[in-house]
Write a structure and sequence with these properties.
- The chain is an alpha+beta fold and about 260 residues long.
- The protein has 2 domains: about 5-160, Structural Genomics Hypothetical 15.5 Kd Protein In mrcA-pckA Intergenic Region, Chain A (Roll); about 175-260, no CATH class.
- Helices cover about 20% and strands about 25% of the residues.
- It has helices at about 20-35, 70-85, 190-195, 225-235, 250-260, and strands at about 5-10, 15-20, 45-55, 60-65, 90-95, 100, 125-130, 135-150, 155-160, 175-180, 190, 205.
- The protein has a 9-stranded antiparallel beta sheet.
- A hairpin with a 5-residue loop joins strand 1 and strand 2.
- The chain is globular and about 60 Å long.
- The protein starts with 6 loop residues before the first strand and ends with a helix.
- The protein binds zinc ion (ZN) (4 copies).
- One zinc ion binds next to helix 1.
Length: about 260
């Protein structure tokens, strides 16, 4: 997969930067924008600025604002929603050698995920794994702190990478990957090449903006009906088992965030 370094936009001001440029930008931008006056004279809340990226797929990244009283389970829930959840697999954080699991197993001395972020050491990388079969590995780090009006949400998206450019062997943009051969360059395809793919169209999955793309059955929260239509127009023989785009989760809200 030929990839350029990914940039993304700051959700506070729209400025575009790469992953580490965004860390420096947000330090200033949060100081300017986030410190609003809380309504009713309430005291502002303390937030951590956390950078998350794919441990082995570093062009997928997020900058998050996380309440200091949020728990690991809140962060886990956010990561599942934006990047990971396919079939309710187990997940775990590893922080300074200790494991905090979604299903703690006493035999292994695992902790649960009720640790507060305020107890996670700043500046030190920690890790998250989702699914212990086809694992997606993430790396996280608290890079700063700021005060802002208390929000309902424990986790706020501050910035996210734009989708990496992945090209098909024919040169066009790839929009499909094959479960059987995602580990090969030729397993990433445009709709025209995907329609003729040797493993068959049943093996195809839409490429999504996540380090879990191509793994297990992960197809994200986006609406893929356009590329399904495109695949059919090239003669791709598809059952009508395209992901339902009418499930009434907050799919639209996600779509908008993606376009920021
Ligand atoms: Zn900004
Ligand atoms: Zn799965
Ligand atoms: Zn192609
Ligand atoms: Zn294949």
């Amino acid at each position: 997969m030929a990839r350029k370094q990914t940039a993304g936009a700051c959700t506070l001001c729209g400025a575009k930067f790469g992953k580490s440029g965004m860390t420096r930008h947000l330090e200033k931008c949060l100081a300017q924008h986030a410190v609003g006056k809380p309504a009713g004279g309430a005291r502002p809340a303390r937030f951590f600025h956390i950078v998350v990226d794919g441990r082995y797929a570093a062009d997928y990244w997020l900058h998050l604002g996380v309440r200091s009283n949020a728990k690991l389970e809140d962060l886990d829930g956010f990561l599942r929603h934006i990047w990971l959840e396919c079939c309710g697999h187990m997940s775990a954080f590893t922080i300074e050698g200790a494991t905090y699991s979604s299903y703690p197993d006493d035999e292994f001395g695992d902790e649960g995920m009720d640790l507060k972020l305020a107890n996670v050491p700043p500046g030190v990388p920690f890790f998250h794994e989702y699914d212990f079969g086809t694992t997606t590995h993430l790396r996280l780090r608290i890079v700063g702190e700021y005060d802002a009006p208390a929000s309902k949400e424990h986790v706020t998206l501050l910035a996210r990478n734009n989708p990496p450019e992945i090209s098909c062997t024919c040169g066009k943009q790839a929009v499909w990957t094959c479960c059987e051969c995602a580990y090969e360059r030729s397993g990433w395809m445009c709709s025209e090449c995907a329609a003729k793919h040797e493993c068959g169209t049943d093996m195809l999955m839409p490429i999504v903006n996540s380090p879990r793309t191509g793994q297990c059955g992960y197809t994200g929260n986006e609406d893929h009906s356009k590329i399904y239509e495109e695949l059919r127009s090239f003669g791709g023989d598809l059952d009508d088992d395209a992901p339902e785009d009418d499930d009434d989760l907050e799919d639209d809200a996600d779509g908008e965030e993606d376009g920021v």
